[in-house]
Amino acid sequence: MNALNFVGSAREDLSGFPEEVKQDIGYALFEVQRGRKPQSAKPLKGFGGAGVLELIDRFDGDTYRAVYTVKFREAVYVLHCFQKKSKSGIKTPHQEMELIKRRLKAAEEDYRAR
Fold first, then answer.
1. Can you give the pLDDT at residue 89?
2. Are 55 and 66 in contact (CB under 8 A)?
3. Would you put residue 23 in left (φ > 0), alpha (ψ -120 to 50) or beta?
4. Residue 89 Rama label (left phi>0; alpha psi -120 to 50; beta)
5. Cβ 79 vs Cβ 107: under 8 Å
6. Helices and strands, counts by H and E, the chain
7. What residues contact residue 22 under an 8 Å CB cut-off, 6+ apart?
8. Which of 30, 66, 91, 103 could share a disulfide with 79, CB 3.0–4.6 Å?
9. pLDDT digit string (tens) for 61-111?
10. According to DSSP H, which parts of 1-114 are helical?
């Protein structure tokens, strides 16, 4: 089973989600650690392939996302967890995408250091 690492405030952000969402995303991340792709996972556009994925969970009219990468052989990095606030469109806001890019670089550095 692959190691599960959180970058930045991703763990704390996930812990602030509603209990049902935490359970759903937590189980999906467990599946990722085991080398499987959960049904709720899809590639995040803008990262050139399936190396960065997002889990989407809807609860009580809100949408929650957890973004992770499987680019590394022995580790899964959770890059960002957030509640999507935008009411128009499905596109991930630019500010969130920039944060994910920075955290992906941090994950790459961390993985090389290990």
1. 66
2. yes
3. alpha
4. left
5. yes
6. 3, 5
7. 14, 15
8. 103
9. 999 999 999 999 999 999 999 998 765 567 788 899 999 999 999 999 999
10. 10-15, 19-33, 94-113
Joined tokens for residue 2? 């692959």
- What integer is the mean pLDDT of 26-53? 93
Residue count of the chain: 114
pTM: 0.93
User: How many Å apart are CA 72 and CA 36, to the nearest integer?
Assistant: 14
Which string of b and e fits 99-111 if b means at least 16 CB within 10 Å?
A: bbeebbeebeeeb
Q: Which two tokens stand for residue 18?
A: 């509603």
Place of tokens 């467990």: 30
